[in-house]
Design a protein that fits this description.
With 372 residues, the protein is α/β, with parallel strands linked by helices. The protein has twelve helices and 15 strands. The chain has two domains: 186 residues, Response regulator (Rossmann fold), CATH 3.40.50; 128 residues, Response regulator (Rossmann fold). The strands form four sheets. Strands 2-1-3-4-5 form a five-stranded parallel beta sheet, with helices on both faces. Strands 7-6-8-9 form a four-stranded parallel beta sheet, with helices on both faces. Strand 1, helix 2 and strand 2 form a beta-alpha-beta unit. About 6% of the residues have low confidence.
């Protein structure tokens, strides 16, 4: 009986010691600890769905690796904004106030811009994917940008036009996206600074599908080259209709030309389009990861989202105390260089990524490095 009492007392003492360790030193039982919740707001339906699908692909592949290799498990809570900025704002409020996420991930620029004030006001980290507008560069201490500034793409497109001996240009762009507007303004300014003339600029609205009226107006001005900057579905239809009209001006695009959807829509009419982009040649290692999961090559924005989420996870793993948004912000701010599957990423003091710029073309339906 005495022996049994001693055993019981020993068990009680051990339980008290373990409980005290948990309370005093923050020791966690990994089997019962809650995962770290991160919200994701993407256009999973609507005319921007190709962006959302690509970003989600990269996030999911990274998530599987992170949760296998890390003691701190992460869960992603997805919200579909259907391409509408008002939906992005309401989704952000729900994720922050109801789901209690420590961070929010967004996609294209206009959605990130809509969510940024909400995130900054609530002191919640916002990590943006596929957002290249310069308006995010100084959006706040909690805002981090995974992609470089679209202005440099517009400027490089202008320089490319001059290098190819084009001295007059027409512009056709999506006036409903901040990144497209930024790129077009940069193109116009740089092209004219280099001695070229922008003869006509036409902006189109969301969900338009008839671009022939714009193309014919541009044709009548007789520019040497047309700078095209829409979202992938826009670009595919523009190239298709350009070919159907049998127009002969050269076309220089923006980074949004690098999407398989464009080749699917435009077919041979996409051949030969040249464009600047921050996406280098995706590593073979990443291509094989995606093929193992989906049976297909990576979607556009997949590899950038993969690297971006790995950066977030790296910051989480460096947090010594409670995993909250303030501590995540501090650790993200310490990351200055990251070498991932999409290449080297350099972050400035405001949390904005800088990437190497490439010139590519569409050849045999593939996106390849442009060789003059």
């Amino acid at each position: 009986m005495k022996k049994t009492s001693k055993i019981i007392i020993g068990i009680i003492v051990l339980a008290i010691v373990v409980w005290g360790g948990v309370k005093l030193f923050g020791i966690k039982d990994e089997k019962t600890s809650e995962p770290i919740k991160i919200g994701v707001i993407l256009p999973l339906t609507g005319n921007q769905a190709s962006y959302g699908e690509g970003i989600k692909e990269g996030l999911e592949i990274a998530l599987a690796e992170i949760n296998v290799n890390s003691a701190s498990k992460i869960s992603l809570i997805y919200e579909d904004n259907a391409g509408e900025t008002k939906n992005s704002v309401s989704a952000a409020q729900k994720l922050i106030n109801i789901d209690k996420v420590v961070a929010v991930i967004t996609g294209p620029s206009q959605h990130s811009l809509a969510v940024a004030p909400v995130a900054e006001q609530n002191k919640i980290v916002l990590y943006t994917m596929a957002s290249q507008t310069s308006e995010l560069n100084n959006a706040g201490n909690f805002i981090f940008k995974n992609d470089d500034d679209v202005k440099s793409l517009g400027e490089r497109a202008a320089l490319l036009a001059k290098e190819l001996k084009y001295d007059s240009a027409g512009v056709l762009f999506a006036k409903y996206t901040n990144a497209a507007i930024d790129a077009v303004n940069a193109f116009k300014t740089e092209f004219e600074k280099l001695g070229g003339k922008v003869l006509i600029s036409e902006g189109f609205g969301k969900d338009e599908s008839d671009f022939k009226k714009y193309l014919l107006k541009i044709k009548n001005k007789k520019p040497n080259v047309i700078f095209v900057n829409g979202l992938p579905n826009d670009n595919g239809l523009i190239l298709k209709q350009f070919g159907e009209l049998n127009l002969h001006q050269a076309i220089i695009g923006n980074a949004t030309m690098e999407d398989p959807q464009i080749v699917e829509i435009a077919k041979n009419y996409a051949e030969g389009v040249i464009f600047p982009t921050f996406q280098g040649i995706v590593s073979e290692n990443y291509i094989q990861k995606v093929k193992a999961k989906t049976g297909k090559s990576p979607l556009r924005w997949s590899v950038e989202a993969y690297d971006g989420f790995k950066i977030i996870a790296s910051a989480v793993s460096n947090i010594k105390g409670e995993v909250n948004s303030e501590n995540l912000r501090i650790e993200l701010s310490k990351i200055k260089v990251y070498n991932g599957e999409s290449g080297e990423i350099i972050f400035d003091e405001n949390g904005n990524a800088h990437r190497k710029l490439f010139i590519k073309t569409i050849k045999n339906g593939q996106f390849v490095k442009y060789e003059e």
